[in-house]
Amino acid sequence: MRNDTAATPQAIFRKDYVAPGYWVDTVEMGFDLDLDATHVATRLTMRRNPDSAEKDLVLFGAELKTLQLRLNGVNLKKSAYTIDGETMRIPNAPDEVVLEIETLIKPSKNTSLSGLYASNGNFITQCEAEGFRKITWFPDRPDVMAKYTVVLRADKKKFPVLLGNGNLIEQGDLGDGRHFAKWEDPFKKPSYLFALVAGSLVCQEEQYKLGSGREVLLQVWVEKGNLDKTQHAMDSLKNSIRWDEERFGLELDLDRFMIVATSDFNMGAMENKGLNIFNTKYVLANPSIATDVDYAGIESVVGHEYFHNWTGNRVTCRDWFQLSLKEGLTVFRDQEFSADLVGTSTGRAVKRIEDVRVLRQVQFSEDAGPMAHPVRPDSFVEINNFYTVTIYEKGSEVVRMYYTLLGHEGFRKGMDLYFARHDGQAVECDDFRAAMSDANGRDLTQFERWYSQAGTPRVDVQTHYDAAAQTFEITLSQSCPATPGQTEKLPFHIPVAMGLLNSAGQDMPLHCEGYEAQAGVNSLVLELTAASQTFRFTQVTEQPVASLLRNFSAPVVLNISYSDEELGLLLAHDSDPFNRWEAGQRLATRRLVRLTQAVQAGEPLELDSMFIEALRATLNNDTLDPAFRELVLTLPSEAMIAEEFEVVDPQAIHTARQFARAQISQHLRADLLSAYEQHLTPGKFSPDAVSMAKRSLKNLALSYLLEWVDESTFELAKTQFYDAENMTDRLAALAGISNFRGQPQQQKVAAKALQHFYKEFKKEALVIDKWFMLQATAHTTDVAKVRELMTHKAFTLGNPNRARSLTFNFCNANPAQFHATDGSGYALWAELVIALNKINPQVAARLARSLDRWKKYPLHLQEKMRAALEKVAATKKLSKDVAEVVTKALA
Ligand code: ARG
Ligand code: ZN
């Protein structure tokens, strides 16, 4: 028998949650691994859940060929169960059930990369969220936790390595050229954490001593030829283990912890118990193939997956609506891990700024579009569409607000109580909030709205200084725009960290009515809970400049009208580095908006000297961390500028921003050159924070220098490209050269450099991804050029990393070209979404989201975007992943 996948997309609702009718105590599985036909025998011991309203025994299965179904030793007759879509119901089952299932699956045909699939001839699994049902019939929902024992059998030559969750308890030969391995996971787990890997792999391994003194085996498994790229992942893993012990008192609970890298992966990585599976992008690194950004990404993703062992695996989610319970918390933990590893306060601020930049650029945009959803959604059609920046990054901001409100100690108390109460359980976001509240004796009832209400709140600021009374009043008013299904919003509980600066830029002592003054503490967390609230400060001896939302203490838009002079003061002096950077961004945004309007009106373009001088002062300020200077000198992206407009004009924004960059290049020429020369990092490459900071400022200086066309800087870039001893410098130079608007002979040099790069790295898939990415985002790359690149022999839509490198980057990160006025970009987008839909619905649905914000564009573009969306919507056999995205966009 075969069951088909659901035909019409139907939403499921959080309010409809019903506890499972049956629990599963043990799962025993035997796999006869064969790429074309894998046989899976499963034995489940189940018992009725007396507390459930569900009386049937319910199982889920997808794309399975079912060979056998036996209940308590008896073959199940067809009349004994029903199948509707992915759901099998067995009515009238006894209270205690032993279910034996045999299924046949086809890994080599599985291009969705969900369930059991083949990658370069190896077996890989991905079961989150609902991939386990593509392996066997099972109550595949996160609140059903069971103990697993798994036997893997396969050809010994082709699949010498057989890995599973937990501990290896037996292995041996089966004769006939086959062998087996038996794995037992001592911990109960939901099915989404199941994993197996089988194939020809090699590993770097190490014995590691935990805080308690217990020895564990750490392994990083990769394909042959990649063992020279595993050291950084191994170091990151050890740092993660130590950090979780020190910061949260959480120790590794297994004797063995494995990381496996695969080049065919839909997302970043997966926290399967004891057997984390990673996209190669987040494992493989050495100086010649990986950039500083890659090194940082590996550290944070290795940390993220490791931290899930406690926040996700030991305590998991009751249902998928609670996804942010584990994801938001684990992102917060990985962000803190990376910040703590750098250690310095500006290092922490740099990390914070980078994280907030992503939040604002991607999550704020999601929150303002047709896919906007609360951190804890009320409904979804396809759960895979809800692994979003809202669940992850906004979810992390929500966790960070507890940290801001409760303090370091208070937050730790809440975490301790959360584990004490819920270890081994599948729980809800509300349980986390209750632990934070109860551990600290704090009423966090209103805080719940951060989970239930979508949209980015806006906080409007009014201030009033009374010189005679020496009082300063700050009135904060909050509102939140309507989002799909939610028109009215109630006030949020918003922590607003702040300080007051005097005219010399120093922090003033704070005496705020209703808040205890603390000697020497010049920063305060105001709690905004009403729609509008006034905070009154006394003993304010001069007119202050308010520094609000320090360290970005809440995921809101702060609307405050500063003068250029006030912003200049904040940029030069604020003791909060985040707000220093923020002041610079406000100065820049203001100018970029004006320049865009001037482009549209055909007026002359001008950039004022006040702004240029503020940038010069920052660039030359040697007391500032170079990484921080790089962030201040980087103009808001075109996507961020677009958010400032009701109606977006991508080409005008691009022209305006390029004009500003050229002006900066011209006026800061000498300063940029000297910044370049002062931040060279000769000698052996090291991905430490200090060297990375130098490279980032040096390469920013280079990219600015190249905006003002002259021979000598072009030569500088060319030399850097050919002489580079690391990928960070090489790629930065190549990007600069290929975006250079020079003479034909320089364009020839650029084409040659691109060719040279390809030849040198054609065996390194991750570097070829960069090669495509760089061209996808080049200013001169238009739709025709993308189509040409799609015919390159190294291009394929079948590999997610490769597909993303060219097509996603073009559609999402090259707005002036993608939004070509003839609509050719949208036509390309539709073709790609339709092609990907057949191969891999999850990847297709991600690309489908590139048109989310179509209603923000001028009418002539809107019409073309709507046509492209309708074309996709009308496609036959559309997956529910893509159907959900385009249906919501068109609604
Ligand atoms: N839990 C994984 C992580 O956060 C993400 C896996 C999501 N995969 C998916 N197909 N939806 O690291
Ligand atoms: Zn995660």
From TrEMBL:
<dbReference type="Pfam" id="PF11940">
    <property type="entry name" value="DUF3458"/>
</dbReference>
<dbReference type="InterPro" id="IPR014782">
    <property type="entry name" value="Peptidase_M1_dom"/>
</dbReference>
<dbReference type="InterPro" id="IPR027268">
    <property type="entry name" value="Peptidase_M4/M1_CTD_sf"/>
</dbReference>
<dbReference type="InterPro" id="IPR045357">
    <property type="entry name" value="Aminopeptidase_N-like_N"/>
</dbReference>
<dbReference type="InterPro" id="IPR035414">
    <property type="entry name" value="Peptidase_M1_pepN_Ig-like"/>
</dbReference>
<keyword id="KW-0031">Aminopeptidase</keyword>
<feature type="domain" description="Peptidase M1 alanyl aminopeptidase C-terminal">
    <location>
        <begin position="564"/>
        <end position="891"/>
    </location>
</feature>
<dbReference type="Pfam" id="PF01433">
    <property type="entry name" value="Peptidase_M1"/>
</dbReference>
<dbReference type="InterPro" id="IPR038438">
    <property type="entry name" value="PepN_Ig-like_sf"/>
</dbReference>
<keyword id="KW-0479">Metal-binding</keyword>
<feature type="domain" description="Aminopeptidase N-like N-terminal">
    <location>
        <begin position="32"/>
        <end position="193"/>
    </location>
</feature>
<dbReference type="Pfam" id="PF17900">
    <property type="entry name" value="Peptidase_M1_N"/>
</dbReference>
<protein>
    <recommendedName>
        <fullName>Aminopeptidase N</fullName>
        <ecNumber>3.4.11.2</ecNumber>
    </recommendedName>
</protein>
<dbReference type="Pfam" id="PF17432">
    <property type="entry name" value="DUF3458_C"/>
</dbReference>
<dbReference type="InterPro" id="IPR024601">
    <property type="entry name" value="Peptidase_M1_pepN_C"/>
</dbReference>
<feature type="domain" description="Peptidase M1 membrane alanine aminopeptidase">
    <location>
        <begin position="233"/>
        <end position="450"/>
    </location>
</feature>
<keyword id="KW-0482">Metalloprotease</keyword>
<comment type="similarity">
    <text>Belongs to the peptidase M1 family.</text>
</comment>
<dbReference type="InterPro" id="IPR001930">
    <property type="entry name" value="Peptidase_M1"/>
</dbReference>
<keyword id="KW-0645">Protease</keyword>
<dbReference type="InterPro" id="IPR012779">
    <property type="entry name" value="Peptidase_M1_pepN"/>
</dbReference>
<dbReference type="InterPro" id="IPR042097">
    <property type="entry name" value="Aminopeptidase_N-like_N_sf"/>
</dbReference>
<dbReference type="InterPro" id="IPR037144">
    <property type="entry name" value="Peptidase_M1_pepN_C_sf"/>
</dbReference>
<dbReference type="GO" id="GO:0004177">
    <property type="term" value="F:aminopeptidase activity"/>
</dbReference>
<keyword id="KW-0862">Zinc</keyword>
<keyword id="KW-0378">Hydrolase</keyword>
<feature type="domain" description="Peptidase M1 alanyl aminopeptidase Ig-like fold">
    <location>
        <begin position="455"/>
        <end position="559"/>
    </location>
</feature>
